[in-house]
Write a structure and sequence with these properties.
Blueprint: H1 2-16, H2 19-28, H3 35-54, H4 58-80
């Protein structure tokens, strides 16, 4: 399906945009994004990944799961690096 490819590419760019944020959090060792924002994003992306998986959009599901994992990492950084 062409939709799977397009959704995968979009999600890949959105996930790639999170990598500098994860790095910055690791370097500065402080919370840069609120816990609520991280929680909503990683739960929502994991749910979206599961939905896409049930629709047979395997590539999109995988990339969105990776994006959710990046948000989860930022969430964990927020817990560990409390200001």
């Amino acid at each position: 399906m062409w939709q799977d490819f397009v959704l995968m590419v979009i999600s890949l760019f959105l996930s790639y945009a999170m990598i500098p944020q994860v790095r910055r959090g690791l370097k500065q060792k402080k919370r840069l994004i609120s816990i609520a924002t991280c929680t909503i994003n990683f739960i929502g992306l994991y749910a979206e990944s599961a939905i896409f998986l049930t629709l047979g959009l395997y590539f999109s599901s995988f990339v969105i799961f990776c994006g959710g994992t990046l948000w989860l990492i930022i969430f964990v950084q927020g817990i560990i690096y409390r200001n």
